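Thread: Putative 4-hydroxy-4-methyl-2-oxoglutarate aldolase, structure

OP (GT): Posting the sequence first so everyone is looking at the same thing. Length is 225 residues per the record. Can we get the structure tokens written out before standup tomorrow? I want them in the notebook alongside the other entries.
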Amino acid sequence: MIHVRTKFDRPDPELVAAIGKFSSATIHEAQGRKGAISYKIKPIDNSMEFCGPAVTVQAQPGDNIMVQVGISYAQKGDVVIVTAGELAHSGGFGDVIATASHAKGLAAFVTDSGIRDSADIRKLGFPVFSGSISIEGTVKETLGPVNYPIAIGGQIVEPGDIIKGDADGVVVVKPEEAAEVARLCQEREDHEANIRAEHRKQERMLIEIHGLTEKLKAKGLIVEE
């Protein structure tokens, strides 16, 4: 039997908002360089970004019936994230389904396979992150689970995980770690703001500001003056 779970623990919206303030790269670094979904999955427009709880969908390659099921049962603010075999020439999500997703108030659509109608989706402004763009359509035949753990882009994503995406890519944060990750993100941003201020002063070399001078010497780097 194939199951669709309509109920799962969604993270506190305040936690989602706290994570959403930061970039995907900052989150990835702050939580110990983990959670990064494959670099192949990128926004169809670099201005697109999102943050929300995951609704997970397992679809068959070249088949979008479960994409439509997942979107149907998702709630406002959710991120529908679909693994479909990384089939690059499969355009399983287009402007019609994007319009439905946007009207429903979903936060984003993410897939390791392809999408199409990219120009119309850009005009719509609905965040879509995909492994490819392809004009080839899909069938509607094979069932798959919704809101069960999925493997996508080198990560295991569970329903309710916090997903953040922006121009650099997509990262996963476990809800139970989100408060600490947000704190570490803020620490990192504050630290980097101080470093940028140091660079603007131009009083010290970059390698000095970054604390690399002694490390470079220890590795045998010789600077002739």
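GT: Both are above now. Quick notes for whoever picks this up: Residues 13-180 form a domain with the Glucose Oxidase; domain 1 fold (CATH 3.50.30.40). The mean pLDDT is 97.
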